[in-house]
Amino acid sequence: MKWVRLIWMNATRNPRRTVLTVLSITVSIFLVSSLRAILDKLASLGQGSDTSNLRLVVHRATSLNELLPIKYLQTVRSMPGAKYVLGVTWFGGVYKDPQNFFANFAATTDHFEEVYDDYRIPPGQLAAWKSERSAVLVGRKLMEQYGWSIGQRITLSGTIYPFDPELIIRGVFTDPSDASGERTMFFHWEYMDEALGRPGRVGSLAVKAASAEDVPMLTEAIDRTFHNTDAETKTETERAFNLSFVSMLGNVKALLNAVSLAVVFTILLVAGNTMAMSIRERAGEVAVLKTLGFHRNAILLLLVGEAVTIALLGGMVGALGAKTTYAFIQITSTKGRIFELIYALGVGLLGGYGTWMLFAGSFALHGGMKVVRFLITALGALVSAGAGLGFYVGVEFIVNQGGFLSDFRVTYTTVGLGIAIAVGVGIFSATLPALRVSRMSIAEALRNVG
Fold first, then answer.
1. 137, 287, 363, 406: most buried by Cβ count inside 10 Å?
2. From residue 86, how far is each of 38, 165, 209 by CA, in Å?
3. Are residues 170 and 273 in the same domain?
4. Could you tell me if 119 and 8 lie in one domain?
5. CA–CA gap between residue 236 and residue 94 (Å, rounded)
């Protein structure tokens, strides 16, 4: 307890330096944790649930924008190994305003729950959706985002097809395996086909294989069957199909990893300079400690322990702050504007405190500096609150747009990694200057004073 008390007293002896160092590490670890959360989400796209490994996606070999004849559905359904088959078409409609964009599909309804068995749909709602041509099945998060309710009528504006479906909500589904799927809706393909004059075309086929052993055989059989036709197909697993969209982003994983390394390197430079300055100022104290009988290793422990304590505080606030922030936005993004203001207020208070500590010291308590301190602190709080509001709105927009980043979150593994990085930065930034100072003789340390 004696050592812990000494280390804590040393770490907090200069509040301004301590607070500003902690805040700089906090921001850096927050950024690293955010980048890791995105990387974790990208990695999860290729995993899928256990049953998703049995799903195949059949689409035109030439382009996703070209459609397949609906008669292909019956052909594929009769193939050995094909247990269930659906027709699915990306509709791409918007709700009221072009900014209200989300995933919406026209789908055949036979065996829908067997193909997409990850979805949890109350049986009564599923039956109601299937039995009514203008009914729509909506994900839970989409319902929360727009404040919809069962039985409500909504209209989508077609952006791809000259058709504005008038729909009535009959069912709500959840997706325990992937919450981003809950920002999706499905209405009847027959309804759209009839409104368009019955062209008999579908965007893709969703095929549920009978077993994992049937997947490669069925993939080859489907493409062979439609080879040399007017609409040749490309069949791939749902996992491969999803990863093809990620590949369109380029080597984004390498970019994010490079940015993370750059951030860590920057933290190391900033923290190293701060710790080195702090330790060099302790030369006189080191001489006194050695005079009192403190061993070199004990002095080294005090100096490095101080750096690690400051870095640990910054790492914990940054990593846990990132986890809390994204969880808070995920939960509150559909609850009203009041939560935007709450978050902005919290960031404003944090920024204001950091600005206030810039002027810590006795000189700030006299004359005009006192007024200047209050004015700059207020300005810092306002700027921070504005930045916090912009950050909340930006993340809220990404979350509510659907897509693969709609439910990204910081895991406890990432929190642990962020704290470990912070501790490592504290150790590496303080070890060399602490070794140098702790090895000084009493006379040499006294000569360095001033």
1. 137
2. 31, 20, 12
3. no
4. no
5. 29
Record the tokens describing residue 210, joined without a space. 């009978």
Residue 236 lies in a domain: no
Short-list 218, 204, 186, CA closest to 72 = 204
Last residue of a domain, one of 201, 231, 261: 231
Which pTM was predicted?
0.71
Cβ atoms of residues 167 and 136 within 8 Å: yes
- Are 66 and 207 in a shared domain? yes
Edge-first strand order for the sheet with 204-209 is 94-95, 153-157, 166-173, 135-139, 184-188, 103-107, 82-90, 204-209, 55-60, 233-237
Question: pLDDT tens, position by position, for the chain (450 residues)?
Answer: 477 777 787 777 777 778 888 888 888 899 889 888 888 877 776 565 666 778 999 999 988 889 999 999 999 999 999 999 999 999 989 888 877 788 899 999 999 999 998 899 999 999 999 999 999 999 998 898 888 999 999 999 988 998 899 999 999 999 887 777 788 999 999 999 999 999 999 999 999 998 888 899 999 999 999 998 989 999 998 887 877 766 655 567 777 778 878 877 877 777 777 777 777 777 677 777 777 777 777 778 888 888 888 889 999 999 999 999 988 888 887 777 888 888 889 889 988 888 887 776 655 556 667 777 788 888 989 999 998 889 888 888 777 766 666 677 888 999 999 999 889 888 888 888 777 777 777 776 666 655
Query: By the 8 A CB rule, do 91 and 157 touch?
Result: no
How far is Cα 194 from Cα 180, in angstroms, rounded to an integer?
30
Residues 313 and 442 in one domain: yes
| 429, part of any domain | yes
Tell me the torsion sign for CA atoms 388, 386, 257, 424: negative
Q: Is 243 inside a domain boundary?
A: no
Domain boundaries, position 213? 62-231
Which helix (H) or strand (E) covers residue 233, if one does?
strand 233-237
In this structure, what DSSP letter does residue 407 have?
A: T
DSSP letters of 154-177? EEEEPSSSS---EEEEEEEEB-TT
Kindly state whether residues 86 and 199 are assigned to the same domain: yes
Question: Are 205 and 264 in the same domain?
Answer: no
Asked whether residue 57 is domain-assigned, the answer is no
